[in-house]
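Here is one chain, start to finish.
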Amino acid sequence: MACSEEFIDFVYSQIKDTGTVRAKKMFGDWMIYVDEKPIVIACDNICFVKMLPAVRDIMADALTGYPYDGAKPHYILDIEHREKAVEVIRALLPVIPYPKKREKKPER
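Its structure:
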């Protein structure tokens, strides 16, 4: 089950003050970018963030899960609690790298 448009709109409304937020549909679910960094994976109306040392203390009581088959475990971000979600995103922004630019393959 993919995320609903309403859920993605809600995520946006909760974290819009963290920077420039955009969502991109990928493989049936969504990647939420903040300041062009991939911060949140939204799958099945659940938000996931990477389990990184920068958020270990903030997310100490968080549930964990797998956003997709074959993924490493991620923290489940309780997006309904806006203040904590914003705190997590602000902690992740300095440590999440920008995506690497892909080279365009020559046309055949």
